[in-house]
Write a structure and sequence with these properties.
mainly alpha, Helix Hairpins
């Protein structure tokens, strides 16, 4: 939330003189910051000054790394946890995904095995937050 607030202060500094109706205050600039940093990008409010455009260009990659990507990873983790909980609650065992089965076979594990693959095996769970190795 601090990043969103600081972004709204920055864009207000650059754009208030050029667009006083769009960037009336730091509070009004929060809309631009939230829409921009979450990568929604409605296009209703955008910078027109060189300083505002440079500020936005520098801010976007940071916003993607700090807000958008972690939000997607959290959503993925919650979805997987819900699916696993639902499967266990209803007694359904899901068939392994083709990619997982292929990588399990290459690692020497039978498809659907709950055992951890050896360290040298291709990473079959790079996007699985439960099994992603911690360094």
């Amino acid at each position: 939330f601090l990043m969103i607030f600081m972004s709204s202060v920055g864009i207000y500094h650059f754009e208030h003189q050029a667009q006083p109706e769009q960037f009336r205050s730091v509070f009004h600039s929060l809309w631009w910051a939230v829409v921009t940093l979450t990568s929604v990008g409605y296009g209703d409010v955008y910078p027109v000054t060189t300083g505002g455009r440079v500020f936005t260009g520098l801010l976007l990659p940071i916003g993607l790394g700090v807000i958008t990507v972690p939000s997607g990873l959290i959503a993925y983790g919650l979805t997987q946890a819900h699916r696993n909980d639902s499967d266990h609650r209803h007694g359904h065992a899901r068939a392994p995904q083709p990619q997982t089965a292929e990588l399990s076979l290459r690692s020497g594990l039978p498809p659907g095995s709950d055992a951890e693959p050896p360290v040298w095996a291709p990473v079959a769970c790079a996007f699985d937050p439960v099994r992603t190795p911690r360094f």
